[in-house]
Amino acid sequence: MNLSIKDTTKTAMMTAIIFVCTYAFKIPIALTGGYTHLGDCAIFLGVMILGRKRGMIAAALGAALADFTGGFMIWIIPTFLIKGIMAGLMGTLTEGRLSSRRFGWLAGAALGGVFQILAYTLVKFVMISPAAGLATIPTVSMQTTAGILIFAVLISLLQSSHTLCRLKEL
Out of 1.10.10.10, 1.10.287.3610, 1.10.1760.20, 3.90.79.10, which CATH number does the structure's domain 5-169 have? Predict the structure, then answer.
């Protein structure tokens, strides 16, 4: 992938937005020592602005950097992979068969979100314990659902004001 300076800058800016939404807006989860955050909303927005490939890069880097700076070292690689794949799944649907559908982005975000829930549960099974993996399904599900709902409001506003088109063209 050959990126122009403009594409690189937009990707870096979206990476920073994902980082801030993940790192700064967090609610601790006592059971795992982790946290829930607003980063998923920013990831979904990043896919809509940047597209699948660059959205995957921004999602993976922004979320992993939040784990790194937050001291969650054991989660950097799982987060990098899970968030990148989550963005990739959404981008595949929104740029593929559902690109012309009015709410294709919602199906893409839902698919990416379901993947994230399953992937983090599996990783917690292995890294912490099966009990912790099962016990945190509600919190990761709430985080994902909140991210999709906030994203739905945001994307609706951006689309109706034609701002999303302008952001893609910048």
Answer: 1.10.1760.20
